[in-house]
Design goal:
Length: 286
Amino acid sequence: MAHDQHGHHEDHEHDRGLSYDLPVLARRRMIRLFAGAGLIPLVGCAGNDEETASGTGSSSSSSSSSSGSGTGSSSTECATIPNETAGPYPGDGSNGVNVLKESGVVRSDITSSFGDSAGGTAEGIPLTVTLTVVDAASGCGTPKEGAAVYLWHCDRDGNYSLYSDGVTEENYLRGVQETDDKGQVTFKSIFPACYSGRWPHIHFEVYGSLEDATAATSITNTSQLAFPKDVCDTVYATDGYSKSVSNLAQLSLETDNIFSDGYDQQLATVEGDVDKGYTATLTVPV
């Protein structure tokens, strides 16, 4: 299969391919159809404070100088985070490379490579990502303590460690953490690029336990976090992100092949600025 200049497959915009994505999209649309008909009862979420922190509620807000956020639905329904493709560069062994069993993968700072890798550090605007994993069946009010999250994304050039040309010996921008008593994990990283064909995003997988994650077994949920456009525009105007400007101009959340069927639950609340860095928060019902 051919690759582009970053080492991505030419059909990377479909991640694992349309044959993989269509059943996922069909299932999600069918669930929404049944829900609209009242066939699937959905319990209510917790209060507005949780929705604001997760970026899934309409109470999210943005300012022109320092923050941006999703304009999610005001619905109080609580549904499981949409399942998405892990893409061709997961690093969990499902596509040939398994970083989860390597010593050092359990960490909060994922900006640098670890172990026997080349030891490089990903450059870019600082980004701190906090995911709050909650129990959807309880109405999103119960945190999932003791679960685990594997998070990964591309670098400032749109490359994925372990896979893309030039960074196959690196494993930066990948890490695992166990959720605390609030159901939270926090990763220190950099703002990812917008590469051709995909809206800026972060991949993550949720596991029932840290043991499951480091054994790369029993994935509970696989999904993606999306970034609001205003923040992307600001970040991509800085040095090092120039290629992302033209790539983003050709996309929208409504036309992205992953987020086009709905992104309310996946659009992060993002605050900060290019000088001090940004924080992205999202609640993940599982």
